[in-house]
Amino acid sequence: MQPRNSRLNSAALRGAVDLAAVKAAGEAAQKAEQARAERARQSAAAEEAGVAPAGAGYELVIDVNEDTFETEVVQRSTEVPVVVDFWAEWCGPCKQLSPILERLAEEYAGRIVLAKIDVDANQLIAQQFGIQGIPAVMAVVAGQLVPLFQGAENEANVRKVLDQLILVAEQRFGIVGGSGVPAEGAEAAAPQRPEDPALSAAHDALDRGDLAGAVQAYKNVLVEQPGNTEARLGLAQAQLLHRVEGLDPQAVRAAAAADPKDVAAQLGAADLDLVGGHVEDAFGRLVVTVGKTFGEDRDAVRVRLLELFEVIGTEDPRVTAARQALARVLF
């Protein structure tokens, strides 16, 4: 998958973390943004007309079957992360986990939706998700599958997983949820984070293609906030785009093919692979290069690989696999 033109689309890579390809994540985020804009337009029109907007709010905990899956899970995932709980009546651990998920869905007040799927009644969905044991919990964000965990977990661990999911949905897909309809007696007050002007300026620079400015802006944020995950991700993306902006893809790939030990060529080719959506190719190329090099060259390749992990997201299974491969080469 190649860029549509010679100038890379930095906006498409901002927030990229699709489980299939980097570029697809940008497209998913764009679709989600369009969906939110349309809902906002409809809400404004309804308010002006003095009527409640159609579809205002949504249930926080829903039972889903094969007939409603497309609407309630796939389409809903463009508005809010949808956590999918695969369970069955006979499953003892499910009866321990499901109440925790339901309680947290209410507590998060619209930042997630919990979709409960009875695997006995919906075997086709379970097969499509590759469910081999229950309880199993996955998520769908902007139409993209995000595996979470399998088996019963305590509330503290579940909360950590959901917090990470919400962070990924917001930072990498631009999805922040909305106003849900809580259970009777529960309050729905979705918290909103104050906007960070410095981080917004960095995002704006990245979106308009000022890559050098974006790199510096993200670095400025990290000086003040070393633990800012969003700034770290943005910096990794901006640096990647800045590196490939002036490359001649044919020349770089020819040099990389001609000499597997040409570190500069392998680094450039890996960057091009990642921008083109060939994530495994990029990681594999650098892992192999680490195995063929020594000293400062090896360190340079290893550091670049770690930087590319940041672009994709450390929770991505492809990153996990590449880390394992890197460890085998190094040790």
Describe the 3D structure:
- With 331 residues, this protein is an alpha/beta fold.
- 58% of the residues lie in helices and 8% in strands.
- It is built from 14 helices and 5 strands.
- It has helices at residues 10-13, 22-49, 69-75, 92-108, 123-128, 155-173, 197-207, 211-224, 229-244, 249-258, 263-275, 279-292, 295-312, 317-330; strands at 61-63, 82-87, 113-118, 136-141, 144-150.
- A 5-stranded mixed sheet has the order 1-3-2-4-5, with helices on both faces.
- Mean pLDDT is 79; it is low at 1-26, 52-56 and 182-193.
Which helices and strands occur, and which strands form pairs?
Elements: H1 10-13, H2 22-49, E1 61-63, H3 69-75, E2 82-87, H4 92-108, E3 113-118, H5 123-128, E4 136-141, E5 144-150, H6 155-173, H7 197-207, H8 211-224, H9 229-244, H10 249-258, H11 263-275, H12 279-292, H13 295-312, H14 317-330
Parallel strand pairs: 1-3, 2-3
Antiparallel strand pairs: 2-4, 4-5
Helix pairs in contact: 7-8, 7-9, 8-9, 9-11, 9-13, 10-11, 11-12, 11-13, 12-13, 12-14
Assign an overall shape. Answer: globular
Distance between the termini: 34 Å
Helical content stands at 55-70%
Which blocks of ≥5 consecutive residues have pLDDT under 50? 1-26, 52-56, 182-193
Compressed to H and E, one letter per element, the order equals HHEHEHEHEEHHHHHHHHH
The largest beta-sheet arranges its strands as 1-3-2-4-5
Q: State which percent range the strand residues make up.
A: 5-15%
Radius of gyration in whole Å, from Cα? 22 Å
Number of helices: 14
Q: Quick recap of the structure?
A:
By secondary structure, the chain is α/β, with parallel strands linked by helices.
